[in-house]
Amino acid sequence: MARLSSREVDWFSLASILFLLMFAPLIVYYFIMSCAQYQCSLTDPLLDLLMGNKHLSDIWNSTPTLTYRAAVIYTLWVTFQVVLYLFIPDFCHKFLPGYVGGVQEGAVTPAGVVNKYEINGLQAWIITHVLWFASTSCFHFFSPTIIFDNWIPLLWCANILGYAVSTFAMIKGYFFPTNAKDCKFTGNFFYDYMMGIEFNPRIGKWFDFKLFFNGRPGIVAWTLINLSFAAKQQELYGQVTNSMILVNVLQGIYVLDFFWNEAWYLKTIDICHDHFGWYLGWGDCVWLPYLYTLQGLYLVYHPVQLCTAHAIGILMLGLLGYYIFRMTNHQKDLFRRTNGNCRIWGKKPEYIECSYTSVDGTKYYSKLMTSGFWGWARHFNYTGDLAGSLAYCLACGFEHILPYFYIIYMTILLTHRCLRDEHRCSSKYGKDWKRYTAAVPYRLLPGIF
Length: 449
Fold this sequence. Notes:
Helix content: 55-70%
Largest sheet: 2 strands, parallel
Strand order of the largest sheet: 1-4
Radius of gyration: 23 Å
Mean pLDDT: 92
Shape: globular
Structural class: mainly alpha
Strand content: 5-15%
Number of strands: 8
């Protein structure tokens, strides 16, 4: 069982972790409350408090509490997603050309283990949305505004699940880990709770915590949440604005891309390198569905009808960002699958050969591509992601800063990921990594950073 010294948790990392544990839930509450009580203004609540117009108790007492209806909705939602994940093997890969589903292997863990996963996220998304449209539009079992109408009570449910699964994962890591050799202990309770102990906690053979919470229930819900916001806009104003349509379409493309390439995501940083703790458990349950959907929520309170040129410009920016994001990842995936025996932009790709050793002493070899988009910058896929994120925000106009939280957050997140990934790669590959950074000197923006 791997044990890291508590001295490896430096004071800055610990301070950051304590800050997030204390304030991240408050940040989510503040944003959602600001929309519900202050028309999405982030400054008015503070001004009210500073000027004595309101007390914290007044704001809290005006906040909807946990309701039985919300608890039932959320319980049924999570249970339904578990059923789709565990008990309905993927059939989409049998008739969708190019889609990779069914049982797939993940990357090699630090202990040298290769886990198998049942990839059926696209199927779960399709079934969920077919049932959603049937229930709201054909049979009228419930209103499509049901998510918006219970948005804050559902927030309390999401927090309960997020903290429950994070706490369970920590206890499990101590007493009955899935693979003891892939556990990491620092000796610091707060670090272990937030960043996780187990690398791939599982219950049984197939219920993998990271794969389930990374994609279900949060990302499946993302498009449903946006649809519910659009339905509320229609109910309140008699129309759905082109800005709301843009947000639904552009974020819907991102969600569908995630599930179409779910097997590819088994090779990404969340699955390959992060342990499962509060950062992923609570983050996937609360932070993702509540803060990634702020644009749609904002447009319920501030419907924005864009001029045609503005709307087309935002659409083009969003599609360009998606193209860069997808093609950059496609180039890397093609390079990996063919072991470099392919063509990138019509030429045989160039690369740098590297080697590393796992904790069990086994030596492995890798190739780092320096052609295509990967010759422009070491994380050019993040550049495309940021362009798409900016498009979502621009659709909301410039009256409030709240919908721009997403691009600010994503810039910080992806820049941090660049630095964290490069620190890990530098430790992993040593001098080979220096050769790679010399060949590709920029991280995100060619010629700038």
